[in-house]
Amino acid sequence: MLFQQEIIVILSGAAPISEVRGAIPLGILLFGMPPLKTYLLSVLGNLLPVVPLLFFLERFSLFSMRRFYFMNRFLSWLFEYTRSRHSDHFHYWGWAPVALFVFVAIPLPLTGAWSGALVAFIFGVPLRRASLIIFLGIVSAAAVVLATTLFGITIFNSVFL
Predict the structure, then answer these.
(1) How far apart are CA 112 and CA 106, in angstroms?
(2) Which uninterrupted H or E stretch holds 72?
(3) Sequence ranges of the domains in the chain
(4) How far apart are alpha carbons 141 and 135 in whole angstroms?
(5) Which of 51, 57, 130, 134 would disulfide-bridge 121, Cβ 3.0–4.6 Å?
(6) Handedness of CA 110, 24, 136, 132 (dihedral sign)
(7) Element (H or E) spanning 122, and its range?
(8) Measured between alpha carbons, how far is 134 from 132 in angstroms, rounded to an integer?
(9) What are the pLDDT digits (tens) for 117-134?
(10) pLDDT tens for each residue of 31-50
(11) Cα separation, 82 vs 103, whole angstroms
């Protein structure tokens, strides 16, 4: 059974803003967990909302567009506007999934799994492909955050201790 600290790391990894960028430092620095355990728990937490989010975004959008005239107009405008303004950037390499991977793999604010799921939905990346690409992006982003955290700890210890 998981303990309270592990659950906090998983939930922090699942949260839309912190994701792995907050869960890994939280687990290592605050809770003193081993790096591999923290890495795996934060990736697991970040993966939990991805498939349901991808699955339900389309259904919620279709339901809203059919049911409410205002939502139909707004979402149609939003999709058209976003696709027309950003499809050049998204299709830069000629293969949209590469752009989605890079978007999720860069551990900056607002470029994680939640935003990646939204981007995949808006640009019409199929569910299976989007899930795999977002998973690979999460694993890569978590590796970068883990390396940065461990490097920061090493530098701090060598300078101040």
Answers:
(1) 8
(2) helix 69-90
(3) 48-160
(4) 10
(5) 57
(6) negative
(7) helix 113-122
(8) 6
(9) 988 888 878 889 899 999
(10) 999 999 999 999 999 999 99
(11) 16
